[in-house]
UniProtKB/TrEMBL annotation:
InterPro entries: NTF2-like_dom_sf, SnoaL-like. Pfam families: SnoaL_3. Residues 11-137 form the SnoaL-like domain. This is Nuclear transport factor 2 family protein. It comes from Streptomyces hazeniae.
Length: 152
């Protein structure tokens, strides 16, 4: 097996671990997936956040205000050049609203986000996240009269 193939598999595992940690609301594991250097994140609709503190606070805020979230990744493309890897993918997101008074999960909402995740290989050979950028995708829908419109 070639080294490039092994690197791609390792990056894919690191990328999957990122989304699984968010789904579980596991901030500790998520923190271990990021570099201990200058990092950045752009969540859909947010300004760029830089530095580990800001990045981790943003995820803590998202996790604290999200009852349920699940990612179905599609169109995953991975490129590795040296010690840098870029993953582009579509995040098909299913998330739950605030819990109802009876404890049931609130309404589920779907959304699409195109994401770019940049990883760096660290000294122990593992891949750590350097930057995440997510942009919402506008999808075509139909009006009540049957005509198409663009919406978020």
């Amino acid at each position: 097996m070639s080294r490039a193939r092994t690197d791609i598999e390792a990056v894919e595992e690191a990328n999957t671990a990122l989304y699984e940690a968010v789904e579980r609301g596991d901030l500790e594991t998520l923190g271990g997936l990021w570099l201990d250097a200058e990092v950045s994140v752009v969540h859909p609709g947010w300004p760029v956040l830089t530095g580990r503190g800001e990045v981790m606070r943003s995820y803590a805020l998202i996790m604290a205000n999200t009852e349920y979230i699940q990612f179905f990744l599609t169109n995953v493309e991975i490129s590795v050049i040296g010690d840098t890897a870029v993953v582009s993918c579509t995040e098909n997101i299913l998330s739950g609203g605030q819990a109802e008074e009876d404890g049931d999960l609130g309404p589920l909402v779907g959304g699409l986000v195109v994401a770019t995740n940049v990883f760096r290989r660290v000294e122990d050979g593992s891949w750590k996240l350097w930057s995440h950028h997510g942009s919402p995708v506008l999808v075509e829908g139909e009006d009540d009269d049957g005509s198409e419109e663009l919406g978020a």
